[in-house]
Design brief:
The protein is about 45% helix and about 15% strand. By secondary structure, the chain is of the alpha/beta class. It is globular and about 70 Å long.
Length: about 280
């Protein structure tokens, strides 16, 4: 999205949804410099966009279950709506939209591929058709990727569905098949391919993937929530040390050492001692 403004415009057009032609400009306000550092945020899609200079959008991708996601999303949306400076009028507030792309429904038992939430008067509504919307300036959208197989056949040619398929794709063959169906998807695929060929970004993603495997393994061992919390805190501290090491190796252009450290915990520990991240044990 950062390397192709047109890709971002197509994605927003599909998710809001609005006609592509109505999106005249998109400015990412919190760009991520991929490959410059290794930390959790560079691997999470959380993008704040100013669209057409008259609407604020927060685009988030969450691939793991997050019990407090509804509260978190509302918190993000409220922050996004507070977009005037001291001395400005309330009438100058820009509409705010938080879009969550999730791999699991935020509400158990309520599975919808795409949902739109706004403030509305439900006390005096005789039916869903005559609900009075308090304001259209404050809304939250959810794209639930876990419901992709439940999309009706007549909607599977829509850009929203194709983008969802791209976000869920796990092989290049699947991506190529989607690219053949849509020009915007084809362009996004090309940029994705370029990014995966970048050595620093690839190593960054490999490190993140190993961390996620460790988390999944520990969670699967059946510890209760209290013990799991303690373990995750320990893992977080260990991951921070790994992040520091990877960043130092990248800064020193020691890519061979970084590649070896990702798959060799013993060598990784030796490098941590070398850089002073860990103290050398003495007998």
């Amino acid at each position: 999205m950062q390397s192709s403004n047109d890709t971002l415009r197509h994605l927003l057009a599909a998710l809001l949804p609005v006609p592509y032609e109505e999106i005249r400009s998109c400015e990412i306000l919190n760009p991520i410099i991929l490959g410059s550092a290794i930390d959790n945020k560079t691997c999470v899609m959380d993008v704040r966009v100013c669209m057409n200079n008259d609407r604020m959008i927060n685009l988030e991708m969450q691939m793991y279950p997050y019990k407090a996601w509804p509260k978190r999303a509302l918190f993000y949306l409220c922050r996004l709506y507070c977009n005037i400076e001291r001395g400005q009028k309330y009438s100058e507030l820009l509409p705010a939209v938080h879009i969550g792309i999730l791999n699991e429904s935020p509400f158990p038992g309520v599975g919808k591929f795409y949902s739109k939430y706004e403030l509305a008067d439900i006390e005096n509504a005789e039916s869903i058709k005559n609900v009075h919307i308090f304001t259209g300036d404050f809304s939250l959208r959810v794209l639930d990727l876990s419901q992709i197989d439940n999309v009706p056949e007549d909607e599977r040619s829509s850009e929203r569905y194709l983008w969802a398929r791209l976000l869920r794709a796990t092989t290049w063959e699947e991506i190529k098949m989607l690219a053949e169906k849509n020009e915007a998807i084809r362009e996004a695929s090309a940029h994705l391919h370029i990014l995966t060929e970048d050595e620093k970004i690839r190593l960054q993603c490999e490190g993140r993937e190993m961390y996620e495997h460790d988390i999944a393994t520990i969670r699967g061992e059946g510890f209760d929530e209290g013990i799991s919390l303690g373990i995750e805190q320990g893992i977080s501290q260990g991951q921070q040390r790994i992040n520091w090491l990877h960043a130092r190796l990248l800064d020193d252009n020691r890519l061979d050492d970084l590649r070896r450290a990702i798959g060799d915990p013993v060598y990784q520990e030796q490098l941590m001692v070398q850089y002073g991240i860990l103290l050398k044990e003495t007998s």
